[in-house]
Amino acid sequence: MRDVAIIGAAQIPVGEHWEQSLRDLASDAIKRLRDEVGSALVDQVEAAYIGNTYGVSISSQAQLGALIAGDLLGGIEAFTIEAGEASGGAALRMGYLAVASGAVESALVMGVEKSTDMIGTARTRARAVTLDADYEAVHGLTLTASAAMLMRRYMHEFGVDLGAFENFSINAHLNGSSNPNAMFRNKIKPGAFAKAPMVAEPVSLFDGAPDGDGAAAVLLTSAERAGDLVGQPVRIAASAAATDTLALQDRIDPLYLRAVQASFDRALVQAHIGRDQIDLFELHDAFTILAALTLEAAGFAERGQGW
């Protein structure tokens, strides 16, 4: 396996893009990527991996790989990658493996999602396709309700009150305030978290990320080749993945994210580094409870101390 590097990246601002379809969002991201690295490098791409979760359930559109490659990338081999809310990361891993193995010299990886074409219960139902249909969604469970059950159990098991999760929301808004691509760029003050309306108790409005539309794309090639193409390629030091059971009730301990622990440990071994050498750790925090559980499973905090 050879080293892989990112030689270009582009993103459109996340928001409510009522006037744009999934195809339009993807087209905009690729246009920005061409502006970033030049059309010549994009035209040399041999494969595309498109991460998407709700294309079918919300936009009635499958086959995004073929749709985007046929329209915008000259008909190269292309695949839609779906792994729930990890679809973008999964697409990046597929592109990484394709380049690392030598199967292709360069690959385009994209994450694209459009959530605002539905509202209310219709959107909630459409997003529930990522749950276990036989044992969870059929009973009306939603993603927010799943987070609420985890959060309530965490608070009970470790004696934590709701205010312990406040800093996750404050930090997320602070980061968004300086990000031109963020959907919301307002800061929240200490105390606002406690006053937020409940969505699925104890999960409040400030515990969950908003639904939005957006797209981002990166260009991958071998690290050896990357230095000749751009001035500052970003080498991918490691890539790893793992899977736990889908349904919460099937997990040995719902409050311990085994897949996070397994994949993170593998990545550390691949990169030949320790946790103390990591300067920035970006985690999936669709809900604040997931942020706490991820920090604990990754070994940055003890059980019950991730907040």
Commentary on this structure:
- The two termini are 38 Å apart.
- The protein has helices at residues 22-37, 39-43, 55-59, 64-72, 87-100, 120-127, 143-158, 166-177, 192-195, 223-226, 258-271, 288-297; strands at 4-11, 47-51, 77-81, 106-114, 198-200, 203-204, 213-222, 234-236.
- The mean pLDDT is 97.
- Helix 1 (22-37) crosses helix 4 (64-72).
- It folds into 2 domains: 4-116 and 211-236, Thiolase/Chalcone synthase (Peroxisomal Thiolase, Chain A, domain 1); 120-210 and 262-297, no CATH class.
- The strands form 2 sheets. It has a 6-stranded mixed β-sheet, with helices on both faces.
- The longest helix is centred in the first third of the chain and has 16 residues, at 22-37.
- 38% of the residues lie in helices and 15% in strands.
- It is of the alpha/beta class.
Strand order of the largest sheet: 3-2-4-7-1-8
CATH class bucket of the largest domain: Alpha Beta
Largest sheet: 6 strands, mixed
Instruction: Give the overall silhouette.
Output: globular
Secondary structure tally, helices: 12
* Strand composition percent: 5-15%
Class inferred from helices and paired strands: alpha/beta
Low-confidence blocks of residues? none
Using the coordinates shown, work out and report the CATH topology of the largest domain: Peroxisomal Thiolase, Chain A, domain 1
CATH homologous superfamily designation of the largest domain? Thiolase/Chalcone synthase
Helices and strands, in N-to-C order? Answer: EHHEHHEHEHHHHEEEHEHH
